[in-house]
Predict the structure.
Amino acid sequence: MRGISLDPDTGIVEERYAVVYAPRRKRGRFSEDCVQIVESEAAALAAANTSEDRYPARVVGPARSSEGFRLYYLVCWLQD
């Protein structure tokens, strides 16, 4: 993950499962209002709704941008 370092001692920035609102899935980072963190891969798959552009994913975050926004970075989509 470019630009993001995971610190195992803090647990602030972590890799997590999520449902991401993404009208265009070509982006690699998303603001926190587009990301719903869930407990597991199964929960992400169950909560996804592609007709509403809500896709299951693994993300890293939250990280603070230079503009002060909290961002999540895409690790991978769980569905094609």
